[in-house]
Design brief:
The chain contains 3 helices and no strands. The chain is mainly α. It has one domain.
C-alpha cells in the first residue's frame, strides 16, 4: 500500500486502529473457544497441590530433615571414602 501526501500522525492513527481491531478479534476468539480450558484447569490444580505440599514441608520438621539429608548426600558424593552407611 502506497500512501502519498499523508500526515504521519494520520498514518499512526490508522495503524493504531488496525492493531486495536486485531487485539479485539483475538480477545473475542479467546472468549468463545474452549479448546485449552482443560489444560488450564489441570495446570491450576497441579500448582495448587504443589503449593500445599511446599507450605506443609516448609512449616514442619520434614523440611529440615530433607535439607539435612540433601547436605549428607552432597557430602557423600563429594567424598565417597568419608561417607558411611549411617551418615
Amino acid at each position: 500500500m502506497v500512501v502519498r501526501n499523508t500526515c504521519p500522525a494520520k498514518i499512526e492513527k490508522i495503524q493504531h486502529r488496525k492493531g486495536v481491531k486485531q487485539t479485539m478479534g483475538l480477545l473475542k476468539r479467546l472468549m468463545l473457544e474452549e479448546e485449552g480450558q482443560g489444560l488450564v484447569e489441570y495446570t491450576l490444580i497441579v500448582l495448587l497441590v504443589a503449593l500445599v505440599f511446599w507450605v506443609a514441608i516448609k512449616s514442619t520438621n520434614i523440611g529440615s530433615a530433607l535439607a539435612a539429608a540433601w547436605v549428607n548426600i552432597n557430602s557423600c558424593v563429594g567424598d565417597p571414602a568419608g561417607c558411611t552407611s549411617s551418615s
